[in-house]
Design a protein that fits this description.
By secondary structure, the chain is mostly helical. It is about 90% helix and about 0% strand. It has 4 helices and no strands. It has helices at about 1-25, 30-35, 40-60, 60-85. The longest helix has 23 residues, at about 1-25. The radius of gyration is 14 Å and the shape is globular.
Length: about 80
């Protein structure tokens, strides 16, 4: 049971980080730095996400950082869904 819980946490964290990277890649400042190149924008989107992950991990610990990233992803996802309506 614990293996399932930690596996789901790991998978959710990875998918959440990828989602957050894609959202940060759409920020105007990152788009300007990437000069229209999607791969470069995605790679530049990694920087703020990694900064967030390491800052949260330093303050709260690894498991709490993963849960915080999942919550950030969930709030951002709900906000995206609401904005589509």
């Amino acid at each position: 049971m614990w293996a399932f819980i930690f596996g789901a946490l790991a998978l959710g964290s990875i998918l959440g980080i990828l989602y957050l990277i894609s959202r940060f890649a759409k920020f105007q400042i990152i788009q300007k730095m990437a000069r229209g190149k999607k791969l470069l924008a995605f790679l530049l989107g990694i920087v703020p996400v990694l900064l967030l992950v390491f800052a949260i991990r330093a303050g709260l610990g690894s498991i709490n950082a993963a849960i915080s990233i999942l919550h950030l992803m969930a709030v951002w996802l709900v906000s995206d869904l609401i904005s589509k309506i």
